[in-house]
Amino acid sequence: MAQSFKFDLVSPERLLVSQDVESVVIPGTEGELTVMATHAPTMTSIKPGVVAVAADGKTERYVVFGGFADILPDSCTVLAESAVHVDDINREDLARRIQDAREDIEDAKDHETRLRAEEFLHQLTTLEGAILPA
Amino acid sequence: MASLKELRNRIASVKATQKITKAMQMVAAAKLKRAQEAAEAARPYAERMGTVLANIAGAVSGTDAPPLMAGTGKDDVHLLVVATAERGLCGGFNSQIAKKAREHIRALLRDGKTVKVLCVGKKGYDILRRDHGDLIIDRVDLREVKKIGFENAHEIARQVIGLFEKGEFDICTLFYSEFQSVMSQVPTALQIIPAAVPTEDAGEGSDAVYEYEPDAPSILADLIPRNISVQIFRALLENAAGEMGAKMTAMDSATRNAGEMIDKLSITYNRQRQAQITKELIEIISGAEAL
Questions:
Q1: Cys-Cys link to B100, which of A73, B32, B116, B187 (CB 3.0-4.6 A)?
Q2: Which residues of A touch B230 (CB under 8 A)?
Q3: Do residue B208 and residue A41 have CB atoms under 8 angstroms apart?
Q4: Is B90 part of the annotated catalytic residue set?
Q5: Which CATH fold would you assign to the domain A5-86?
Q6: Separation of alpha carbons A80 and A64, rounded Å
Q7: Facing B213 at nearest CB: one of A8, A44, A82
C-alpha cells in the first residue's frame, strides 16, 4: 500500500475533504499532476477540472472551478473557488457557467482578456465533456 | 382615566405584538444557528488562504508585488465599504456599524482626504445617506439573497477591484460587525487594499522551497484578488450571524417588555373593574337605604 498523506479540499463555503489519502490528481493550469506522499513542495493554480482523490482503494471525484493547490511533502491543500462532488454536479449550473464564459468573450475589450476568456471557456467545455456522459 | 373597554383593547394589542416579537425571536434563533454554521464552514478556507498567502508573499520580493498588495503609494482617496444588514429590528446592530463608519469618514474629511462610500445592505445606506449622501458612490443590494454565497462576495470584490484599477481610490477599508457572541457584536474596520498580508511566524511556517506553477508573481496576482473576496465573504457571513444574534436579543427584550406591559395593564384593568363594582354596590345599597 502506498504511503498516505494528509489532503484537504476546501471551498469558501465549506470543507469538503480532510483525510489521509494515497494519491490525488490535480488539474493544474500547466497540466494535470498526480500528488503522492513526499511530493516536492509546489504551489500551483488550478483550472476547472476534476480532482480525483484515491484513498482506501476507492477514488472519489470532485469538480473544481479554479483555485490553488499548496503541496507539501506531508500534506496537500486544494483551495477551490467552488467545488462539488462529481455526483452532485448540477447540469444547469455548469451550463450557466459556460454561458457566462461565452458572454465574457463577447464583452472582452482587449486581446488579452479575450484570450483568457476563450481559454477558460475551452477548459469548461472540456470539463463538461469529461463529466457528463453524452 | 381610560375606560375598561380601552384598557381591554390595549391589552389585546400588546398581546398581539408580543406574539409577533416572540415569533421573530424564534425565527432569528433558527437563522442564527444556520448563519453560525455557515461562518464556521468558511473558516478553514480563510485560514488556509492566510497561510498560503504568507508563504507566497515571502517568496515574492517587494518590487514584484502587484499594486493590490503594494498600494498606489498615496492615501488621498479612501473607499469605505460599509456592510450592514438589509433589515432593521435588530437593536443597535446597524447603527453601530454606521456610527463607526461615520466617525472614520469625519476623521478622514478633517485630514483633507477624499472619501467614497460603497454601501452593502440597505440599512447602512439609509443611515449614512442623511449625513454623507454625496459621498456614496454605489450600493449593493442583497435583499433578494436568501443565503449569502461566495458569489455575492466575489461580485462586490470585483466591483472594488475594478474601481481600484481605474484609479478611483488608494485605500479601501471594509466596515462590518464581528460576531463574538449572541450578545455582542463588535463593529470592525478592516483595511483590504492594499492588502495586509499576514506575516509568517518564525518557526511555525514551513521553510520549504516551493516550486511555482506558473510563477510566483502570477500566482500572487491571482491570489490577492481572491483573498479580497474571501475577506468580504467572511465579513458578510459575520454580519449575517451578528444580525441574527442582535435580532434575537432585541426581540427577546421586546417580548419581555410586552409581558411587563401586559402585567401592568392587567393590574390597572382589574383595579378599575373592582372600583366600578364597588361603586355600583354602593349605589344599590344607598338606593335601598333611601327607601
A1: B187
A2: 12
A3: yes
A4: yes
A5: ATP Synthase; domain 1 (2.60.15)
A6: 6
A7: A44
Is residue B52 less than 8 Å (CB to CB) from chain A?
yes
Q: Nearest by CB to B210, which of A8, A41, A77?
A: A41
Q: Which residues pair with B136 in a beta bridge?
A: B117
Supply the DSSP string of B47-102, one letter for each residue.
Answer: HHHHHHHHHHHHHS-GGG--HHHH--S--SEEEEEEE--S---STTHHHHHHHHHH
**ipTM computed for the complex:** 0.73
How does DSSP assign A2-25, residue by residue? ---EEEEEE-SS-EEEEEEESEEE
Strand ranges, E, within B194-270: 211-213
Domain ranges of chain A: 5-86, 90-131
B44 contacts chain A (CB < 8 A): yes
Cα(B42)–Cα(B235) distance, rounded to whole angstroms? Answer: 11
Longest dimension (CA), chain B: 114
List the alpha helices (DSSP H) in A7-110. 91-107
Give the one of A11, A30, A81 whose C-beta lies nearest to B213's C-beta. Answer: A30
Mutate to test the interface with A, among B34, B36, B40, B45 (most CBs of A within 10 A): B45
d(CA A83, CA A133): 20
For chain B, 291 residues long, give each residue's pLDDT as a single digit of tens.
Answer: 678 999 999 999 999 999 999 999 999 999 999 998 888 888 888 888 877 777 777 666 555 667 777 777 778 889 999 999 888 888 889 999 999 999 999 999 999 889 999 999 888 898 898 888 888 888 888 877 777 888 888 889 888 988 888 888 888 999 999 888 888 888 988 888 877 665 544 334 445 577 887 777 778 778 888 888 888 898 899 899 999 999 999 999 999 999 999 999 999 999 999 999 999 999 999 999 988
Please name the helix (run of DSSP H) or strand (run of DSSP E) that holds residue B27, with its range, or none. Answer: helix B4-59
Domains of chain B: 4-22+251-290 (1.10.287.80), 33-249 (3.40.1380.10)
